[in-house]
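Researcher: Watch the backbone:
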Amino acid sequence: MNDKIRFGKEYDRKAITELLAKGFPEQWKALSKKKKKVMEIIEGGIHPENFVLCEEDGDIIAVLGFNDGKSFPVTVDKRALWRNYFILAPIFGYFMEKEFAMSHLANTDILHLSFFTVDSDVRGRGKGREFFQKALELLDKEYYVFDVVKESLLPFYESMGFRIIKRKKIPFSFIYHYKYRYIMVGTGKVKTRS
């Protein structure tokens, strides 16, 4: 892989937002059916420094968010929620913050991973697998915890050495279009395909 693997910077905010909106359309539909509103809500809550990026020819083609318990890849932009939802904003905000909170991981050898997506234009070429492995090498932690909501992706993460330790029902699953989230754990030693 000749792609550049690096941590996100402030100038990557828009590219990260676009890739997340494209990679997780079901999750963001709960915020609005209008793409412009979704982008506004997501972009305001992105913390680029909490993403590892894969850059190919100047374009961001894959992202992986991480939460060390001190800072998060995505937080809730309450101003955008208020502008779009008024009375429902505190309810959405509460559940979204609860989703991302992992403060118990602070100062440990555990890193919480989230928001892994690869641009649909490059899927199927092994770039996601390769990027995921290199991102974990860059993050350099002993253990990783990953929340997965798309059941169809479980075999991929299992092939990377992660295993399911818990299945949790998602509150208000009708909003997210997923019924369960699977908590998976893996070690810093990533399995490679033989």
